[in-house]
Amino acid sequence: MKSKKLRAYLSGGMEYAKNEGVDWRKELQVWIESNLGHTVFNPNEQSKVFLARTLPKGNFRKLKSADIKRYIKIVAKIVEFDSREIAQKSDYVVCYWNRSAQLGAGTKGELTIAKFFGKPVYMVTIMQHANIPGWVLGCTTKIFSSFSSLTKFLKKNYKS
């Protein structure tokens, strides 16, 4: 009997992040797939596919000012899709908590869903813990000060 591959969800700032947080996610995705053999849900990739289908010629971020009703409708679908992914398909969440995550709301919501559904949340941050909202800390399983320490932990605890 073939066992199910584990699946990681990559959570962190997008709306207020440099390059929507693409760089750290892509690098960690490659590492997880190569070193652990897990599948990865990368919201940057999934959002890109969804927005290309939903808004082929438009600028999604500009819609927030230009057409708030349409923007909300699109974001609601993204929230549903990402929430379902965490609740039903992902086995653990890796969260990069920085200023962009703190400014937005999606990461907080993703961590809450993960906590509610009993999914471990591994946070990478260099922020002082006292400056991270208590709610977010309450959703976190383990905190790492670098991606290097996270990957060592993942390799030790998840390598098959």
Which features would summarize this protein structure in a list?
single chain; 160 residues; alpha/beta; five-stranded parallel β-sheet; 8 helices; 5 strands; 13% strand
Structure description:
The protein is 56% helix and 13% strand. The chain is an alpha/beta fold. It has a five-stranded parallel beta sheet with strand order 2-1-3-4-5, with helices on both faces. α1 (22-36) runs parallel beside α8 and α4 (68-89) packs parallel to α6 (106-116). The model has no long low-confidence stretch (mean pLDDT 94).
Short description:
The protein contains 8 helices and 5 strands.
What is the beta-strand fraction?
5-15%
Q: Overall pLDDT, averaged?
A: 94
C-alpha-based Rg, rounded? 16 Å
Give the count of helical stretches.
8
Distance between the termini: 15 Å
Number of strands: 5
Helical fraction equals 55-70%
Structural class: alpha/beta
Give the low-pLDDT segments.
Answer: none
How does the overall form come out from the CA principal axes? Answer: globular
User: What sequence of helices (H) and strands (E) makes up the elements?
Assistant: EHEHHHEHHEHEH
For the sheet with most strands, the description reads: 5 strands, parallel
Major β-sheet strand ordering: 2-1-3-4-5
Secondary-structure map with pairings?
Layout: E1 7-12, H1 22-36, E2 39-41, H2 43-54, H3 60-66, H4 68-89, E3 92-96, H5 99-103, H6 106-116, E4 121-124, H7 134-139, E5 142-144, H8 147-158
Parallel strand pairs: 1-2, 1-3, 3-4, 4-5
